[in-house]
Amino acid sequence: MSWIRRHSRRISAVALLAGAVTAGSVVDAAAAASSTAVTGRASSPGTGGVRPVPQQRLSQGQRLGLRATPDPLALRSSVAFVIDQDTGEVLFRKNETAVLPIASITKLMTALIVTEAEQPLDQVLTITQADVDTLKGTTSRLRVGTRLSRGELLHLALMASENRAAHALGRNYPGGVESFVAAMNRRADELGMTDTRFEDPTGLSSGNQSSARDLAALVNAAGGNELIRSLSTSPAHHVAVGARELYYRNSNRLVFSPQWSIGLQKTGFIREAGRCVVMQAQFAGRHLIMVLLDATGPETRIADAERLRRWITGDDKPATFLPPPI
Hints:
Blueprint: H1 3-13, H2 23-39, E1 41-44, E2 49-52, H3 60-63, E3 77-84, E4 90-94, E5 100-101, H4 106-116, E6 124-126, E7 147-149, H5 150-159, H6 163-171, H7 176-190, E8 209-210, H8 212-222, H9 226-232, E9 236-241, E10 244-249, E11 262-270, E12 274-283, E13 286-295, H10 300-313
Antiparallel strand pairs: 1-2, 3-4, 3-13, 5-8, 6-7, 9-10, 11-12, 12-13
Helix pairs in contact: 4-7, 4-8, 5-6
């Protein structure tokens, strides 16, 4: 029986926090925000007129009006979900059943498929033109022709969200990327992730979608893998590429904070998804899973995670950050 199925009754039974909205008010907020997105105007410099705000710049959460959902902590993420990993007790919930693009959080499932297939981590793989992002046009320091071990590519995909590394992992799976994505979706089904669908191993596709409840199940499963835990929370890593040495830092700066005890983490961003992060963290002896989706800016997901930590622990002191290793 999957973790999410075992805890589904408790998850469903927990009442909304005081001040959270009813389902009806979420619909009302969505309608209002959707109207604003369509009719909003911005000044046109030098003309005194107005021009439409481009609809395509909005995240999917914005288009659905989810960012207008009030919550007791005034979070700026459309979705927030915190659950006790051991007991299934829900500590905080906000739009946790909304299905949204998840960006590079996808790479947790990519890592699960690679590690559970027991493909040799010391096998050297080559970055090819097929690994170059033609969907979003993102760049990479892993040039075409770069040769790294599967283990190094897995490290960079989890710690630094390296897209070419993740795609190369999928491409070198038996049957190629198509078979890899099929394996991702089968594993999601096995975990009871009924709201989840994967289309690529990187998260660059906005078709990679899930809910916070499903992602909690993914974090729980990935958290049982010691290698994934270690690589995802690695603060920094040097990679020798031919005569060059590349330096990568973790994409989640909370791993540099002594106030945070993070067992597993993954960040994500594409325009359609907004800023996202999932974590397994330990506070006051409890193992908690935290999901934040569609935050408004680069630092907002960190600020929202901090609000949740301080609310859960009662610690009013802001987190401090140690310099990352060099």
